[in-house]
Structures
1.
Amino acid sequence: MQFLVQPGSVQDAAVAVPGDKSISHRAVMLGSIATGTTHISGFLNGEDCLATLAAMSAMGVDTEQSDATTVTVHGVGLHGLKPPSSALDMGNSGTAMRLMAGLLSGQAFDSTLVGDESLTGRPMQRIITPLEAMGASIGSRGGRPPLEVKGGLSLRAIHYDLPVASAQVKSAVLLAGLYAGGITSVSEPAVTRDHTERMLAAMGVDVSTGNGRIAVPGGQELQGGTVEVPGDLSSAAFVLLAACISDSADVVINKVGVNPTRTGVIDILRSMGARIELDNAGMRSGEPVADIRVRASQLRGIDVDPSLVSLAIDEFPVLFVAAACADGVTRFSGIGELRVKESDRIGAMAAGLRELGIHVEETQDGAVVHGGRFGGGTVRSFGDHRIAMSLAIAGTVAESAVTVLDTDAVATSFPGFTALFRSLGATIEEAGS
Ligand code: S3P
């Protein structure tokens, strides 16, 4: 699939974006090992979360998806999962594979985790090291998938100082910690998304947080319940971008998750001059939510504060496009982790922006983007959903048509992306490859 984008910026509207990916994965996984039933609304019906749902079904969990965004999970309890009859396919999802590896380390049976070509190239040693320190045994191909997780081992609690700021690694250790004797704890070098901690607490688990240390005593039962998944701020970020760089749009995005461990994109865009306001703030299933209003803005280049990187980790493709539309120069530093996401996102964005006529300098862990005007052209997504969507939004303000190649992966996180942007007045069509 390809996106064909004609120039024409978005217009005034009120929209909602699909459910939060991180929270949807966790609701299915934690609901599965809970006691009782978990009712999930606002579930992200994207390929990544469907891979998690299929994996839990393959381990004997009874799940029903009564409509696209409503899922019921009949929990089997901490020790109720059954051996899967074949390898569990995590598709494109790093979150699914890394969290599942933690969960599976504590099971009585062996299991294998596989993924697509992109996931098979991604680093897994970062979870293997702490999980093996807990007594797990995980085979890999030089630290990459497939992962062969041995069952029937007894796990022991550890304290782990995360060498990289990663919510996936933190969560993998905490999930294994549920099966370990003693209190498992982690410290993080920078704050990362805390959805696992919040959902464990909401399901009645004693989990303590403070001073950058998160601790969970093993052996606790989780209690299933209701999870209302908010809109995904990482998907809303494409709307924020499109409205900011538009001629005159005034857009409201309803009921978006605004957990402070995720809102770096709002802070960074605001410091570039974006007009973004939060209204109707409230809580849903232990997570902060709000309506976000964003208006067309004159953006200016900045030095992006490296302390915000872990709070905006998935939004740098969006921020690169914002930087290209800003007056002056934007400097990104401390973003080396972007090189091991679904694609090398620094390289992929630099290539895409250059193709559209923007001057970008690249370093190993950063980039300098010089504001300019987008010409038209054909750009590659490198099979990465967020690269595809960011470059499509660039196309809405380009001087001529932009074609984005290889856009199938958008279905992993943002079903209905092109329809939503058409409803905002953009001219984005999908075409077969
Ligand atoms: C996620 C954590 C982040 C993020 C990913 C989702 C999660 O990955 O990039 O999209 O749900 O825990 P890292 O832990 O690798 O930073």
Note: Residues 22, 94-95, 166-168, 171, 193, 313-314 surround shikimate-3-phosphate (CB under 6 Å).
2.
Amino acid sequence: MTAIGIHDLELATGHHVLELTDLAESQGVVPGKYILGLGQSQFSVLSEDEDIVTMGAAAALPLLERNGIEGIRTLLFATESGVDQSKAAGVAALRLLGLPSGVRTVEMKQACYGGTAALQAAIGIVARAPEEKVLVIASDNARYLLDSPGEPTQGAGAVAMLVSADPALLEIEPINGISTTDVDDFWRPNDSTTAVVDGHLSVGAYLDALSDAWKDLEGRGGPAIGDIDRILYHQPYTKMAKKAQQRLREVTGEEISTALNPGDEVDGRDTGLETGSRYNRRLGNSYTASLYAGLASLLDHDDELAGKRIGLFSYGSGCVSEFFTGIVQEGYREVRAASHVEDVLDARVPVTVAEYRDLHNAPHGTSTDQVTPAVTTGPFRFAGVADQARRYEVR
Ligand code: HMG
């Protein structure tokens, strides 16, 4: 069988960054609650002239520069912070990226699971036509109400992945474990720009979905836990990955380490909980992109991955989840040498809490005509709304 999986991957994020110690202090909250309790140090904040389209295209651009566009026949854009009810965000991204018209483009949605849905659909397309490549973009702007418990878990980010036969980074294995349950833990109604969430219910729903997806994987003949070298989880905040690791430890009986922070006591086999959480700790929740930001972090901070099996748990509230596995390819370090994620994170411009609150309150997703102030310096910008349509510019 042809090996199919992720050939290359890149990450982009918002222009600004907020320190969670600043947010905590402004709220009279002990910073340790956010830094250790949630495992988050910062979150990205979008300026008014960027959105999921500009972030997604910015993530995809270096991939196309490195790999060319030959063979790309499909663009799958996963998001749960969509900017239109009808038109796929990927269509605007396709124009910004200069992709030809012979690329079918659709948007995929199921909360944070959408990125994995797009990846699995891409694998199906390549299985049918191995000479084709699929550009998968997962891009989100995670927004909760100001002063709500979800606020410190906001964030923004996009991951673009090129899916192909004979991938250079990660071959995705065919057996997966799935769990879908109808639960109202988190959703975003059509008339709201922020998510509605029952936070503690969502944590329980996530953990139960993990148990169920793992059991489904086991029942379908998936790899034993002892044959999985590293494990990545969807990270709404990095402490959630630690909770997930604790649950998987209980379900499997395998002593996998739950040490999340540098210096934490290592209480079992190291499966990369800390190395896979370094980017997410600084990005905040990037919804559909979060699991794949974790993958980028692991690949960039672990030199011993060649030939190793990674388990990946994807969770999207509502809820749909999947546990699947992949084998890291021999040349992954050469591919990742081109990655600039640390630079992208370091380049963000800090905002004060007052500036962040103003940006949060600025119009989002409105169809009222407007011209956005030019703030960003990236390759693409959201110029505003004219005749009720969103306008994007290439710099
Ligand atoms: P909260 O209720 O304000 O926080 O919000 P808490 O009181 O539960 O405290 C959080 C943790 O900090 C606790 O640790 C405290 O002990 C600890 P835990 O019991 O969880 O291990 N703590 C401290 N630690 C150190 N020093 C201190 C200190 N003080 C307290 N001084 C909540 C937490 C998660 C509910 C909130 O952030 C929230 O609503 N978040 C949004 C929802 C969310 O992220 N859910 C996660 C699962 S659902 C999911 O992943 C899907 C999602 O990505 C969306 C999608 O799929 O589209 C969200």
Note: The domain at 4-170+337-394 is CATH 3.40.47.10 (Peroxisomal Thiolase; Chain A, domain 1).
